[in-house]
From TrEMBL, chain A:
Compositional bias of kind Polar residues: 609-620
Family designation: Belongs to the Rab GDI family.
Species annotation: Cairina moschata
Domain RAE1/2: 413-543
GO biological process: intracellular protein transport; small GTPase-mediated signal transduction; vesicle-mediated transport
Protein name: Rab proteins geranylgeranyltransferase component A
Alphabetically ordered keywords of this record: Cytoplasm, GTPase activation
From TrEMBL, chain B:
Single annotated GO MF: Rab geranylgeranyltransferase activity
Pfam families referenced in this protein's UniProt entry, alphabetically: LRR_8, PPTA, RabGGT_insert
Similarity comment: family membership: Belongs to the protein prenyltransferase subunit alpha family.
InterPro entries (UniProt xref): Leu-rich_rpt (IPR001611), LRR_dom_sf (IPR032675), Prenyl_trans_a (IPR002088), RabGGT_asu_insert-dom_sf (IPR036254), RabGGT_asu_insert-domain (IPR009087)
Class of this enzyme: transferase
Name assigned to this protein: Geranylgeranyl transferase type-2 subunit alpha
Length: 620, 507
């Protein structure tokens, strides 16, 4: 197959994270010949979403940090005399301090296999993972990814070409869901999580089902777990781009259903839209008016400069104190609506953040956020698909043998992913997508953003919730986030000791993983030494909630590369395309020598989604 | 369409008509002619066309969910089918899901598909939770609550709901309207306020709390147990409901004492006794302060009203220019008793006038009503006198409460005309309307005891505008200084001709 691949490309994109994928799509869309490679066997890089077993392998890989053996130096023979090599660091050091915990009897799961998984998969990467922390690497961390624009760049190694086929894969997963729930064999039923026998009274009627680790493993392929936890602002740049470029047709979304706040040890729902305020039972009438009045003011605060001029130099929190708002309203606005820091967010920044939140309300629902079904990792893949539709070629598991070193960034994101058995705030509807900001205990520390996803987002199995915690790192992820986890959840290991009733109300954590991810979003291109001018650098995920940073970066890089081209214009309607002979001929000579690896060269085929013969991309 | 018109001309109402109208209406459901033809054809055709027709009209409503013709047709079809409220409810719910303010769907739901009141209340609550800027939903809710005073528990729930809405968004008028509807549960039935018997012009006058039509039998009047033959006529001389009705006394009633008995619609009887040597006699009910400004609210518990007024005050502190709130507070204060809250009421109405310039006239009339009410309730306001100088009155309401006034001081207001209701003031002797905006007295009924009329400084230009005064038998003094008419050279002569017995002052 490798022989059939074209040898020349206009743009080589390394890494399939979100900004790289957007650039790849934009380049392919504007007619460039694109090669998109990723050293990993999955799409998305640090933006990826995994099935449960995939996540376990990822954890294992990142805990072991095994050297990728690549003694094969054959490729060096291919370097021409007038060519130069920049080596890439082969080690991925963007992930550190991975610690996974299972709060159930995971031995019980030893013999359980993920339904539909390939038998060879190392499913139980998490076993014995507790407490294993990786030493932070003091070496120069590697470049996350790079986009290279080359006059003639050789694709040295290409054993197989994957097309963006995950959408189809997901379709099949949905279908699987209806094939009946897995039967729990008698040997497993004794292995309840949470040690139910310790407190039989706890197991009341409202707690219909115990979720077992074995079940999570078995159903692991039915849901996707994100490495980064982000939501899409419904008027954010990413939504605009998805719509403009028509990439949105490759994805489905679910509205975040509620905004929560954590105040005085309790989780409360934050009324943020007009209808919420009207329906809220926790606000007094006067509070309703205060809140509405303030929010209305924020929507056009620039028209009323006299209202905030005097507070331009104070923090937003100080400004809120002057606005006749009750403490709970101040808390809601500061932490859950503006989602800014109490200590170092200025009045104007706070007003801007509030306005952004409010402007996003009502476009798709009662909260400003959307979550992509099957996880955040879908989004880069959607752009990859777009790229493939316009002729981009994909090679996963192919590292590029060049090295570009970046400066020590130091900035990291602390992440935790939990599987829990209940929502942090139970209501009539189980299917809630909630976002909760937990303010720091000590002023000046970062607030922790908690996103709780229900099973209909296809990120967790039925009767469980997937909880993401994210904050900029100050220590290891576990040190940063565990206090918040303990506040909100009930860790199963303590079940026998805790008998107080209030503990019972909290959701139990069934499984957890903590890790630090490098945040290279603030790194300037100039800090990379000796970077050729036609190499552009993309950053990994940042700690912000939205994706604006990645979209902005992608657009900026694309504009630098192709100043005259439009960024991701809407693709032509397949019915409007008229092929003339020359175009067809050139396209064929270009990249479609091998029919089975042809990555959907004509947009026509893209309309029949999933019907083309595409190689399934799966963990091997 | 042309074919259709042809066929109609030929009287051919067959299956083809149904087909053709179907084609037209599917594209444009607002062609009334087609609906009519279709109905006629269907009736002639017979057969079970109801299900098909319901499906068809459903499709038309998909094209235009607010098509009057299609809704009407649907109602017509349903008359030919067994009632199925559940299906109709589901249909309405679907349309309301798409547009919660589709008033046709609400109306249809009310007419054809009502579930139990509680279920319907829950349904409206659900739609209001989505968006409470929905007059239709509030209205539907209001209609579901039975007439008359609400049970306290229910009233509290409703008030809480609606207060949530007004505090969330005081700019939204739908909730304010509902709030006022919740309170104004019952209009007090009309009743007799005063009676006046006058031997001089042989008339018995009755004043009612609301405009009524006196038909034979509705008002029983008798003189010394002998029924008065009538007829009753409205005092303002117009054939429409009126607060003032007049009845001639039998001639030759020269031998008092005479006892008059009057009862309205079998209600309590009121008596007036003419004594020897007197030419007039009257009876008047004491003024009911709570009825003057917002009579409909009378049945509500004053404690609830004061609580609401307090809530309005709180809201006004945050939103001093909310017109819904200002109006509601003004009405509440009026209902709670204008005298105790006079200054606050005036302040409220002044703010409302600034906050709501588009309804300036409405607010001015309301303010006029408040001023008249305050004057009626003024401590020591004599029976015969109303002093309303310089109160910016634009109208003259509540005259029925002042039916026995002998002196009306209205100088320096903004009245554009003298209301016909003045004809009910049978004892009026002095009327001062100086410095107003009266152009003409056309339509003014005769005032039997009027002696002095001051019209100085009004824009009256023609002597003919004063013609009705010729019917006032006792008029002796008329002041017209500073009117355009007074400046006209021929004015004196014209007036002398028109009103020969009146001393006219032109300067």
């Amino acid at each position: 197959m490798a022989d059939n691949l074209p040898a020349e490309f206009d743009v080589v994109v390394v890494g399939t994270g979100l900004p790289e994928s957007i650039i790849a799509a934009a380049c392919a869309r504007s007619g460039q010949r694109v090669l998109h490679v990723d050293s990993r066997n999955y799409y998305g890089g640090n933006w990826a979403s995994f099935s449960f077993s995939g996540l376990l392998s990822w954890i294992k890989e990142n805990q072991e940090k095994s050297e990728i053996s690549d003694e094969c130096e054959d490729w060096r023979k291919l370097i021409l005399e007038n060519e130069e090599v920049i080596s890439l660091n082969k080690k991925d050091k963007t992930i550190e301090h991975v610690e996974a915990f299972c709060f159930g009897d995971q031995d019980s799961a030893k013999d359980v296999e993920e339904a539909g998984a390939l038998p060879k998969l190392p499913v139980f990467g998490a076993s014995g993972a507790e407490g294993v922390a990786q030493d932070p690497n003091k070496e120069c961390p590697p470049l996350d990814s790079a986009v290279a624009r080359a006059e003639s760049c050789e694709a040295e190694k290409a054993a197989s070409v994957d097309t963006a086929s995950t959408v189809e894969e997901n379709d099949t997963e949905v279908n699987c869901e209806n094939e009946g729930s897995p039967s729990v064999s008698s040997s497993e039923s004794a292995l309840d999580l949470g040690k139910a026998e310790a407190a039989p009274s706890e197991v009341s009627a409202q707690e219909p089902k115990k979720i077992m680790y074995s079940q999570i493993v078995r159903e692991g392929r039915r849901f996707n777990i994100d490495l980064v936890s982000k939501l899409l602002y419904s008027r954010g740049l990413l939504i605009d781009l998805l719509i403009k470029s028509n990439v949105s047709r490759y994805a489905e979304f679910k509205n975040a259903t509620r905004i929560l706040a954590f105040r005085e040890g309790k989780v409360e729902q934050v009324p943020c839209s007009r209808a919420d305020v009207f329906n809220s039972r926790q606000l007094t009438m006067v509070e309703k008016r205060m809140l509405m009045k303030f929010l209305t003011f924020c929507l056009d605060y620039e028209q009323h400069p006299d209202e905030f001029q005097d507070y331009k130099n104070s923090t937003f929190a100080q400004f809120l104190r002057t606005r006749k708002l009750t403490p709970s309203l101040q808390h809601f606005i500061l932490h859950s609506i503006a989602m800014v820091s109490e200590t170092d967010c200025s009045t104007v920044e706070g007003l801007q953040a509030t306005r952004k939140f409010l402007q996003c309300l009502g476009r798709y629902g009662n909260t400003p956020f959307l979550f992509p079904l099957y996880g955040q990792g879908e989004i880069p893949q959607c752009f990859c698909r777009m790229c493939a539709v316009f002729g981009g070629i994909y090679c996963l598991r192919h590292s590029v043998q060049c090295l570009v070193v970046d400066k020590e960034s130091g900035r990291q994101i602390s992440r935790a992913v939990l599987i829990t058995d209940q929502s942090v705030l139970k209501t009539d509807s189980e299917q809630q997508v909630s976002i909760l900001t937990v303010p720091p205990v000590d002023l000046g520390q970062p607030a922790v953003c908690v996103i709780e996803l229900c099973s209909s987002t296809m990120t967790c199995m039925k009767d469980t919730y997937l909880v993401h915690l994210t904050c900029p790192s100050t220590k290891t992820a576990r040190e940063d986030l565990e206090p918040v986890v303990q506040k909100l959840f009930h860790l199963n290991t303590e079940a026998e000791k805790e008998t107080e009733n209030e503990e019972l109300d909290k959701p139990r954590v069934l499984w957890a993983v903590y890790f630090n991810m490098r945040d290279s979003s603030g790194i300037d291109r100039n800090s990379y030494s000796s970077l050729p001018s036609n190499v552009y650098v993309c950053s990994g995920p940042d700690s912000a909630l939205g994706n604006d940073c990645a979209v902005k970066q992608a657009e900026t890089i694309f504009q630098e590369m192709f100043p005259t081209e439009e960024f991701c214009p809407p693709p032509p309607n397949p019915e409007d395309i008229i092929y003339d002979e020359d175009e067809l001929a050139s396209e064929e000579s270009g990249l479609s020598n091998s029919p089975e690896t042809k990555p959907e060269p004509s947009p026509e085929e893209s309309s029949s989604r999933g019907s083309t013969a595409v190689n399934e991309h799966s963990e091997e | 369409m042309a074919t259709l018109i042809d066929k109609r001309g030929r009287g051919e109402l067959d299956a083809e008509v149904v087909e053709l109208t179907g084609a037209v209406l599917a594209a444009n459901p607002d062609v009334g002619t087609c609906w009519n033809l279709r109905r006629r054809a269907l009736e002639l055709l017979g057969g079970d066309w109801v299900p098909g027709e319901l499906a068809f009209v459903g499709g038309c409503l998909g094209v235009n969910p607010k098509s009057y013709g299609a809704w009407h047709h649907r109602r017509w079809v349903l008359r030919h089918a067994p009632p199925d409220p559940a299906a109709q409810r589901a249909f309405c719910a679907r349309l309301l899901e798409a547009d919660p303010r589709n008033f046709h769907a609400w109306e249809h739901r009310r007419a054809e598909a009502g579930a139990g009141a509680e279920a319907e209340l829950a349904f409206t609550a659900q739609l209001l939770a989505r968006d409470f800027s929905n007059f239709s939903a509030w209205h539907h809710r209001g209609r579901l609550l039975a007439e008359g005073p609400l049970p306290p528990e229910r009233l509290r729930e409703e008030l809480e709901l609606v207060q949530n809405a007004v505090f969330t968004d005081p700019q939204d008028q739908s909730a304010w309207v509902y709030l006022r509807c919740l309170l104004a549960r019952a209009t007090p039935p009309p009743r007799l306020l005063s009676l006046h018997a006058d031997l001089e012009d042989g008339t018995l006058a009755a004043a009612f709390s609301r405009p009524v039509v006196v038909s034979p039998g509705s008002l029983e009047a008798s003189l010394d147990d002998c029924p008065l033959p009538g007829p009753w006529r409205p005092a303002d001389g117009r054939p429409r409901p009126s607060c003032f009705w007049l009845c001639p006394l039998p001639p030759g009633l020269a031998t008092p004492p005479a006892r008059l008995r009057v009862a309205w619609q079998r209600g309590p009887a009121h008596f007036v006794t003419l004594r020897p040597g007197e030419t007039e006699a009257w009876w008047q009910e004491p003024i009911e302060a709570r009825e003057l400004i917002w009579p409909e609210v009378g049945v509500s518990d004053p404690a609830v009203l004061s609580e609401l007024a307090q809530a309005c005050r709180e809201l006004l502190e945050l939103e001093p220019r909310s017109r819904g709130c200002l109006l509601t507070l003004a009405l509440l204060l009026g209902a709670l008793g204008p005298r105790a809250h006079g200054e606050e009421l005036r302040r409220c109405l002044r703010c409302l006038q600034e906050a709501d310039p588009l309804r300036r006239g409405f607010v001015a009339d309301l303010a006029s009503r408040a001023e008249v009410a305050l004057e009626l309730l003024r401590e020591g306001a004599g029976l015969g006198e109303l002093r309303l100088q310089g109160k910016a009155l634009t109208s003259l309401p509540l005259l029925e409460r002042a039916a026995l006034a002998a002196r009306l001081e209205l100088a320096g207001n903004e009245l554009g005309a003298l209301p016909p209701g003045l004809g009910g003031l049978r004892r009026l002797q002095v009327l001062d309307v100086s410095r107003n905006r009266v152009r003409s007295l056309r339509g003014l009924p005769p005032l039997p005891r009027l002696e002095e009329l001051r019209l100085d400084g009004n824009p009256i230009s023609h002597a003919s505008d004063l013609a009705p005064l010729a019917a006032c038998p006792r008029l002796a003094r008329l002041r017209l200084a500073g009117t355009p008419l007074a400046a006209a050279p021929e004015a004196a002569a014209q007036l002398d001709k028109l009103l020969p017995h009146v001393a006219v002052t032109l300067a």
